[in-house]
Every structure is written in C-alpha cells, then in structure tokens.
Amino acid sequence: MKVLIAGIDGYLGWSLARWLTERDDVEVHGVDGLMRREWVEEVGSASAVPIATLPDRAAALERRSGGPIPFWIGDLRDPGFASEVVRAVEPDAVVHLAECPSAPYSMMDPDHCRFVQTNNLLTTMNLMFALVAEGASAHMVKLGTMGEYGTPGVPIPEGSGWLTHEGETAYLPFPRQAGSWYHWSKVHGSNNLSFACRLSGLRVTDVMQGVVFGVYPSDGDDARLDTRCDVDAVFGTVIHRWCAQAVLGAPLTVYGAGGQRRGFIALEDSMRCLQLLLHNPPDAGEYRVVNQLDDVHRLDALVERVAAAARLHGLAAQIEHVPNPRLEEEDHRYDVASDILPSLGYRSRHAMDADLGAILGKLMTTGDRLHALEGVLHPDVSWVGGRRGRPEVVEA
Ligand code: NAD
C-alpha cells in the first residue's frame, strides 16, 4: 500500500511515518509546509525535545527502514501543489494531518482565527479535490477531533445517531458544539468531506480522536528520529505541560474547577488506530466517522496521577488551580460511543503510568532547553480577551 502522509513533519505525522515504515509493509510518502515549526516559534516557544530538519529525519528513517521516504515541501493551501503531489504519488491512501491544531492559537485574535480556518479548510479541500480528480479511489483518513462534539450533556454517538424532533425520528449527523475557532474549522472540514463522499464517491474515514499524548517509544534511537514534544500553553498537550511543570519544579496548573472530562490517547495507540483504519477502508462513497478516546479522565483526577508519577521520579509536584482562560463547562457529562474500532479488532495497549514515566524521563534529559520554556507554560490567550501579552522570545 502506498500512503501519503500530509503533515509528515508534525507530531503525529512524523510518528506515523516511523510507525508504518518500522512495522508495516507500507510505502510512505510525505508532504509538509514546515509551518508548525514557524507557529511555535511565533508564540515564543520550541519543541522541548529537539527535532531534526525534515531532510535529516527522512535520511535517518531511510537508513533504518532501508527504503526511500520521498517527501515534498510546500503549502497545501495551493491547489496546484496539492494536485501535483497527489498525481505524482498516486496514493492508495492519504492520511490528512496537515492542519493547524491549536485552539489557543486560533483564539488569539481575528487574524489567527482567519488563518486557522482558511488553512484547515483549504488543505482539506485541496486534497479532497485532488483525490476526486484522480478518480476518488484512494482512501482519505482525516484526523478530526473529539472537540467537534463539544460537551452537549447527552450521550455522543459515533458521528450520527437516531435523533427525534417534534415526534419524528431520523438518522442524522449529531449536532456539533465546538468550543474554539480551531475546533469549528474541524467541523467545517468534516461537513465538506461528508458532502464530497455523497457527491463524488470519495471514501473518507474521519477520526475523532481525543487528546494524544506521549513520546515515541525509543530504544537508544538516533535522536534525529525523535518526534516533537510541545509543552507551552498554546501548542502543548495538557499532559505534556504538566510533566514539564513537574520537571521544572513549578506547580501543575489546572484551568478552573478541573471537572472537565476528556478522552486521552497514547501516541502509540493513535498510530495503531490509524494503521488499522488504513487496512480497513470504507466503501466508495462512504463517509465514516470513528470515535477514539481510549481513556476518559476528569482533569482534576488526571493531574493527581501526573503528580504521583512525578513524585516517583523524585520531583515535588504541587497542584494549583488557575482561572480558566477558556470558555468551557468545568463539570459535565461525557458518555461517548466508540464501537467501530473495537469491531475492527482494536484494543488500547497503553499503560498510563508507564507512559507518564516515559514523558517525564524524556523531559528530564532536556536540561536548559526545557528551562528556557518556563515563561511560555502559562496561558496568555483568553477566549474572551484574545492574546493578553507577548511572552518573551525564548532561545532554545
Ligand atoms: P502538527 O501541527 O504537529 O502537525 C501538522 C503538520 O501539518 C505540521 O507539520 C504542519 O507544518 C503541517 N501543515 C499544516 N498546514 C499546512 C499547509 N497549509 N501545507 C502544508 N503543511 C501544513 O499537529 P498534530 O498534533 O500532529 O495534529 C495533526 C492533526 O491531528 C491535526 O489535524 C489535529 O487537528 C489532529 N488531532 C491532533 C490531536 C493531538 O492531540 N495532537 C488530537 C486530535 C486530533
């Protein structure tokens, strides 16, 4: 199978390139505009784990896997470029990860909202039309997010459900209640893909993943193979931020009351899920929504778990609740259906405490680089007030 990873230079994209070349008989091609590196730099931050350039990473992976990892560098907002890449690769599947994934970045001001929405809609649309132009037989696996559903206070089905209105019942897409401009960009992309499947016979799997965390399993690897690990308040996943705070001896900060419930997925399980879906495509014309949120945790319970793991590493982890910069419910119901992945044989293999230990262990080796990021761990973007102040630029 020939797989094109759009967003190959990102956190998930690079991990997937490794996962598929190290564990599967798959020919991996990649495309990326290297923008994630610029966005993180713009907010004064850097990946806590140093990352090699894309050409260096690809060379290291080629050496390990024995096969070439062809990649294109360019902006997928350009329809001509997207078509050229798809035409050249002729993929059996495209894993579309090439979007800006940060809610706070999209909430900074109207310009950032406009950028995130147009970027995410255009990369999706350009890949979608490029596949249609090539006959629409390739399978697009698109990373959505559980955040598309929001927290509606009723059970959340897998994409669609039987909905009753004024006494009549029909099987319909479940209403989305996204909580940031970024999350709405994902909703709009999902709607467009759903329509393209009906219209053009495209086959799409839209994966609503929870929050992915973790470092790629390493066995004394070449450091050029590392994937990024962001810990700042704009691009860092909450678990990474807490681990960084613990290593720095700073309090682990919880936004608001901490009763927010979210699904969390270990990086390896995210990869396992994508691999399984690539081998089990939907029929032509089918738009399939898959929910993946292996473990649901309340943030106030999860932070205790991170603090306990940190104490096992000799770190004095304190917990502090800070005013919530986001507009979100701080205590809510969260019952989510997730039946498709188990029906395909998927089982989560992660062990939270071991995964937390691996992140903490990795961050403890980053020394001055992590210390330089201390100033960007505190939220400076508020959902109602936009960006409050520019953090100092950090050398890393
Ligand atoms: P990332 O920012 O690390 O990776 C995205 C990559 O796409 C980057 O390397 C970026 O340069 C590239 N890209 C973005 N716009 C592009 C464009 N116009 N042209 C070319 N390349 C472009 O993000 P990630 O964390 O790996 O997330 C990947 C996808 O998965 C996103 O769509 C995100 O919404 C989704 N997702 C992520 C998580 C998570 O916890 N990381 C959870 C659920 C869903």
In words, what does this structure look like?
This protein has 396 residues and is of the alpha/beta class. It has a single domain (2-387), classed as Rossmann fold, CATH 3.40.50. Helices cover 38% and strands 18% of the residues. The protein has helices at 11-23, 35-42, 54-65, 79-89, 103-106, 110-133, 181-200, 238-248, 267-278, 299-312, 340-343, 352-364, 368-371; strands at residues 2-6, 27-32, 71-73, 93-96, 139-143, 160-165, 168-173, 203-209, 211-213, 252-255, 261-266, 287-292, 295-298, 319-322, 381-382, 386-387. It has a 7-stranded parallel β-sheet, sandwiched between helices. A 3-stranded mixed β-sheet has the order 9-11-13. Helix 8 runs parallel beside helix 10 (299-312). The longest helix has 24 residues, at 110-133. The protein is globular and about 55 Å long. The two termini are 39 Å apart. Residues 390-396 have low confidence and may be disordered. Bound molecules: nicotinamide-adenine-dinucleotide (NAD). Nicotinamide-adenine-dinucleotide is lined by residues 7, 9-13, 32-36, 75-77, 97-101, 119, 123, 143, 145, 209, 211-212, 237.
Question: Which runs of at least 5 residues are low in confidence (pLDDT < 50)?
Answer: 390-396
Secondary-structure arrangement, i.e. CATH architecture: 3-Layer(aba) Sandwich
Number of domains: 1
What's the CATH topology label? Rossmann fold
- List the secondary-structure elements in sequence, H or E: EHEHHEHEHHEEEHEEHEEHEEHEHHHEE
Query: Which structural class should the secondary elements be placed in?
Result: alpha/beta
Strand content: 15-25%
Q: What CATH first level would be assigned?
A: Alpha Beta
Give the distance, in angstroms, between the N- and C-terminal Cα atoms.
39 Å
Strand adjacency order, main sheet: 3-2-1-4-5-8-12
